[in-house]
Amino acid sequence: MAFTQTTQNHSSFSSSAALFAVVDMDWSFMGEFLKGMVKPLAATVLVLLAVALSFLQKLGMESEMVYSIVRAFVQLSVIGFVLQFIFTQHNVGWILLAYLFMVTVAGYTAGQRAKHVPRGKLVAGVSILAGTSLTMFFLVVLRVFPFTPRYIIPVAGMMVGNSMTVTGVTMKRLRDDIRTQINLVETALALGATPRQATVQQVKRALVISLSPVIDNTKTVGLISLPGAMTGLIMGGASPLEAIQLQIIVMNFMIGACTVSSVLSTYLCWPSFFTKAYQLQTKVFVPP
Q: Which of 161, 153, 162, 150 shows the shortest CA–CA distance to 218?
């Protein structure tokens, strides 16, 4: 009986010690995190300056500025903890889960930009998934980076982020251009043109406008600013020459992902723009 009581006491003591150790470890980690956030918080002084200027100029953007910086602070803090966990894992499933999460959020955001396009969020999500998965496949096959969360997730984030912007602009611009030139499109359809033929100019214009910023950034890279991937590699200790080589690969993939996503989005938009009889869905183009 005494032996049993001693064993139970020892087990209880061990459990308590383990609990205290976990609590102490967590608080230590949080302490380091909070200590590291002092400088980011100090940097919000410039945000306060922007808020003051907005108030003096009567722009009415003060609340939006404060909301955006608070939201960014919370989101980045949360994702920091999530990435801290994922980077310690050695499971491909976490990489795929993080990638699909980014695509889902990107599809929703791009769909919000083109909110008047029916099923816009689904169209944007599928387009972004197709464009980025294709480029990420080649990224893995060519072994540009080690297939680990530390490398793949940030690169995937750049691909998805740029594809999101391009896709959203393409869809919105295409719908707006067709609405503006609806009489021209309907005339072409009446003369026997297919939806593709009737909207070829609008599609071209939407693609050119959405892809131009990506191409312009590629033209001026290194002359105006150093891109994120290159900067991160250099700050991480890589040589500038090695960083440049990897950045060129990333930029090539980025142009490919953006182009595939934007072009695919135009094809996926058509079923909602036209009826089966090749007539415009007028309710889609009612002025907002």
A: 162
